[in-house]
Design a protein that fits this description.
dipeptide transmembrane transporter activity, transmembrane helix, MetI-like fold, ABC transporter permease, mainly alpha, globular, transmembrane
């Protein structure tokens, strides 16, 4: 065993992380099932309505069909069996499969979160590195204040302010929705309007979708960029004090070469960690921003489900969010193993 570990440390590291991810997925299903079953509202009344719920025969038939007359452990096993078949249940609002509704809502959130993450990483890493190199100077202090403000200001308030000024007052960017009312969605390939319109050559829709995307993306970027700036600044400052960076300066390497080949590479692990957290947070935490901008994504779907006590839909959203976080953390762990050999033996 020791010989195998010494010969294939990366393979063992990957297998160990994948095993942990599988156990976490099971834990997510347990937590999601338990929390939603602690809701005081009766799902039968929510599903049938007051009139039908007053009939004992209808109630008994509904409980039997949906396994609600079974013990909690048996209900969980039924729930897991349905999950393994891709069945997340039926929405109490629309009577449609929740898996289909989530599949329709998720691409909008992925598109919004993806653009926000790209902007956050480019701006956050760049400005954080600049702040570290300008430590103690005016530009450093200014960037620290801006990043602190971005983290501290509630996103829903920032969304309302941005909507009021950038759309209502100044008309610089389009308002709510993913497209203008006069525009038709591009042919469905991935569900991402920018990607689908580009693949089909529908550039008019591409420009319109990009304009609608900018306002909510700016709001989310301001928060996540502030987080990236602060973490990048701290990581870069630690690396700047390392001997190998001083040696690179002594060799006469250009500042750009030192930053790209030495500083950012040495600070990569904590930066990758923050990128994973930011992306997971954006995918699962866009509820209020999507509601303000009428962005038909996972956040707005979760908000509507919770507002209407749609328990199966809330369970589906919770499961998807949990899977997203676990998946992103797994990817981050795998990246660790490639960029830092020390992690493989941890």
């Amino acid at each position: 065993m020791n010989a195998f570990i010494a010969k294939y440390p990366l393979t063992l590291f990957l297998l160990r992380r994948i095993g942990i991810a599988v156990l976490l997925l099971v834990g997510v299903t347990i937590v999601t099932f338990a929390l939603t079953n602690l809701v005081p509202a009766d799902p039968v009344n929510l599903a049938l309505g007051d009139d039908a719920a007053a009939d004992p025969e209808i109630v008994a038939q509904y409980r039997k069909e949906h396994g609600l007359d079974q013990p909690v452990v048996m209900r969980y096993l039924i729930y897991m069996g349905n999950l393994l078949q891709g069945d997340l249940g039926v929405s109490l609002q629309t009577s449609q499969p929740i898996a289909g509704e989530l599949a329709a809502a998720l691409p909008a959130t992925i598109e919004l979160a993806g653009v926000s993450v790209i902007l956050s990483v480019v701006l956050g890493v760049g400005l954080g590195t600049l702040a570290a190199y300008r430590r103690g100077k005016f530009s450093d202090q200014l960037l620290r204040v801006i990043s602190l403000a971005g983290i501290s200001v509630p996103t829903f308030w920032l969304a309302l302010v941005a909507y009021y000024f950038l759309f209502y007052q100044w008309g610089l960017l389009p308002g709510s929705g993913r497209l203008d009312p006069t525009m038709w969605a591009p042919d469905h390939i991935t569900g991402l309007y920018l990607v689908d319109s580009a693949l089909t050559g529908n550039w008019e829709v591409f420009v319109n979708a990009l304009g609608h995307l900018m306002l909510p993306a700016i709001v989310l970027t301001l928060y996540s960029m502030g987080l990236m700036v602060r973490f990048t600044r701290t990581s870069v400052l630690e690396v700047l004090n390392q001997d190998y960076v001083r040696a690179a300066r002594a060799k006469g390497l250009s500042p750009a070469r030192i930053v790209t080949a030495y500083v950012l590479r040495g600070a990569a692990v904590p930066i990758v960690t923050v990128v994973g957290l930011v992306f997971g947070g954006l995918l699962s935490g866009t509820v209020l921003v999507e509601s303000v901008f009428a962005w038909n994504g996972l956040g707005q779907y979760a908000y509507n489900a919770a507002s209407n006590l749609n328990v199966p839909a809330v369970m589906g959203v919770g499961l998807v969010v949990g899977v997203i976080y676990i998946g992103i953390n797994l990817i981050v762990d795998l990246v660790y193993g490639f960029i830092d050999p020390r992690v493989r033996t941890a």
